[in-house]
Specification:
Blueprint (H helix, E strand, L loop, with lengths): L8 H6 L2 H7 L1 E6 L10 E9 L2 E8 L5 E7 L3
Antiparallel strand pairs: 1-2, 2-3, 3-4
Length: 74
């Protein structure tokens, strides 16, 4: 863990992704925006575990759930 990017809290949260996915609770389910980044999703799920916010997208093409964004407030 000597790289500078690994000192950021959000980057550290990615290393705990399995724990976050297993223990997070669904906070909100929303319709995605029509921009190029979100148009591939049917819906976005906002999940929370401790102070970590995880956004998961349900893909239109195959109904797979994909990690879209992980955020940790500082």
């Amino acid at each position: 863990m000597d790289k500078p990017s690994r000192t950021y809290v959000s980057t550290k949260a990615v290393f705990q992704l399995t724990e976050i996915l297993e223990n997070s609770t669904l906070v909100e389910e929303v319709t995605p925006k029509k921009n190029k980044n979100q148009k591939q999703y049917l819906k976005l799920l906002y999940m929370r575990y401790k102070n970590i916010k995880l956004t998961v997208g349900l893909q239109r093409s195959n109904n797979d759930l994909v990690q879209y964004c992980i955020t940790v407030p500082q």
